[in-house]
Amino acid sequence: MGAVVAGIPLTVGYTYKGRPDAQAVFHEAEAAFGRSDWAAAAKLYTQAAALDPNWYDPALYAGDSFFRMKDGSNADIWFAKAIAIDPDRETAYRYRGDALLQAGDQSSAREKFVEAVVAEPYGNPTISALGQWAQRTGHEIVKPAITRPEFTTPDGILRIDPELAASTQDGRSSWIIYQQFRVAHGARTLSQPIVGGGSDANAVVVTPSGYRHTIAEEHAALRAMLADIDTRIESGTLMQANLDPSIRNIRNLEKANVLGAWIAINAADAGIRSDYPDYRAHHRKHLIDYINAYLIR
Questions:
Q1: 152: left (phi over 0), alpha (psi -120 to 50) or beta
Q2: Is 183 within 8 Å of 158 (Cβ atoms)?
Q3: Spatial contact of 243 and 229, defined as CB atoms under 8 Å apart
């Protein structure tokens, strides 16, 4: 269910459930945790983790048990172990951020909450946790003001918006270049919706037509639009000072080498969400830099 809601495949931290001998001890730990016997729970969770070092849950909940005992040092050790097992699940980052914030280390807590968003950017827990950190530390969470014009494709052909085509003085007419690029690659609307029967068992989004909107396609389409803008500025037919704010913000993100990260986090649709794990694997630093520089103020 989590994969369906988030739109990205679940990782090993969610899907691997441990060896039978570790499971037996883990169930004892769960019972102790349910009784609020944190010391017993921590001991049993660490035993389960020793029996199966590749299992995320015992490491995570050992850390949580130590956290509830206000043993920040051991909590940090076990949250780090869980992160090492699955760096693409958000929970241990978030729990570790809570522990660091409780200890008064706002800077390190920020780092972990940001990494939680990178791990899973489309769920409420990570954004909420970062937002709570921001409130407690005098920051706020924002995002670049960017609006991409909607488009339609009757009979598979782009319907050009006459108002957009006439908007030559602020550069908005160059969005037609973007739209033409997208349509040529199979897009029929701006955003690719999740459709009935459009996901496999592990929530990798596909469509009956076989088209999937990817981060690379979106980035290339935006670059085509920006190239047209640059050509018009160089020719003197468009004044840079008159640029539409959305286009100006896109240009700035591209110059800062984080436009791909904006697409991945703030322009995500069904296709981009399913494309996200591969992007995250190759661009984790870009994602972290983008969040720190553009989402936190």
A1: beta
A2: yes
A3: yes
Task: Please give the structure tokens belonging to residue 66.
Answer: 């130590």
DSSP state of 169: S
Q: String of b and e for 6-15 (b: at least 16 CB within 10 Å)?
A: bbbbbbebbe
| CB-based contact 78:59 (threshold 8 Å) | yes
Calpha distance 149→76 (Å, rounded)? 46
Radius of gyration of the chain (CA): 23
Would you state the structure tokens that stand for residue 264, as one six-digit string? 């991945």
- How much is the pTM? 0.92
Nearest C-alpha neighbor of 95 from the set 117, 73, 75? 75
Cα–Cα dist 220/225, whole Å: 9
Say if CB 115 and CB 288 are below 8 A apart. yes
pLDDT tens for 21-80 read 999 999 999 999 999 999 999 999 999 999 999 999 999 999 999 999 999 999 999 999
- Contact between residue 9 and residue 3 where contact means Cβ atoms under 8 Å apart: yes
Side-chain-side CA neighbours of residue 178 (13 Å): 24
Gap between the Cα atoms of 254 and 219, Å rounded: 9
Instruction: Collect all residues with Cβ–Cβ distance below 8 Å to 233 and sequence separation of at least 6.
Output: 239, 240
- For 27, the domain range is 2-137
Last residue of a domain, one of 137, 167, 182: 137
Question: Is residue 16, in this structure, part of any structural domain at all?
Answer: yes
The residues facing 296 across adjacent strands are 141
Looking at the fold, whether 9 and 68 belong to one and the same domain comes out as yes
Task: Name which of 60, 109, 46 is nearest 89 in CA terms.
Answer: 60
> What is the domain-level CATH number for residue 29?
1.25.40.10
